[in-house]
Request: fold
Amino acid sequence: MGPSEGFRSLAILLAVAAAVALAYGAHFQNAAVVADSTKKVKTKGGLSLKQLLALISRPQWLSGTAFMGAGIVLQLAALTLAPLIVVQPIGAVALVITSLLNARSTKTRISRPTLIAVTFCTVGIAAFVAMASGVAHETVLNDDRLREVLGILLTILVIFGVLFFTIGKRMQALTYVAGAGVLYGFVATLAKVVIQRIYQQQFELLTILCLVALIGAVSLGGWFVQNAYSSGPPDLVIAGLTVIDPLVAVSIGIVVLGEAKDAGFLTILGWLISAVVAMIGVYLLSKVHPELSTKALTRKHLV
Reply:
């Protein structure tokens, strides 16, 4: 079944540490992408494959990747100790840290509307975690449930892959963020699935397929994130990831994995309300962020 529920507090602490690492990783990666893109006049939202490959040689981008890697390790450790629907939403902590780091590095004042948007995101996710922690339980994962997850992910990978390689250059930051958030939600789910299968001593072909699907989702999701950095501020990217990612992962955890089968009507209603509040925050941030306004004016002037 998994570890004892007594480890849940440790899992939450590990998830918070993972969120801090994610925030610093996003900050450094965004700085590297912006520095690279300013060398060339860009009027579109997407990066070319050549530009993405060039980022690998930038120390700042590599530093961000190292932080991201540390965050993944900490998140996986948290997932081994607590249900998915408890751990995954805690990543919203990264939004607050990223907003402060970005404001300091760009010397951009955090405006009141931006602060309100960040508050909506954070409060919505925090309320969700508080309610989930009281009712979430580990479940035994069978092969049929796992095939459902893989089938949904395969469909999404095909759709996003086609969209990216056809209209990718016309996509905006929020679109990239949404795509990455959905994919990373599946990454978290598949990571939890593999951990559960190991606990259940079922590491066989189906589990290996999960690992392959996980790598595919990470790769395409990572590409989306780098393109989002080129057309939007890092706190918008993190806002989308820390809201859309857990909402997708939690939905799968509830519907497919059955981690919230003990939740009552009021709890489910509370989850829906908190999710709506968090999504409103992401939408507001995409509209009111001062750095987005600056970038839009700059591009209009260049054109």
Remarks:
- The two ends are 58 Å apart (CA to CA).
- Residues 27 and 234 are 6 Å apart (CA to CA).
- The mean pLDDT is 77.
- Residues 5-302 form one domain.
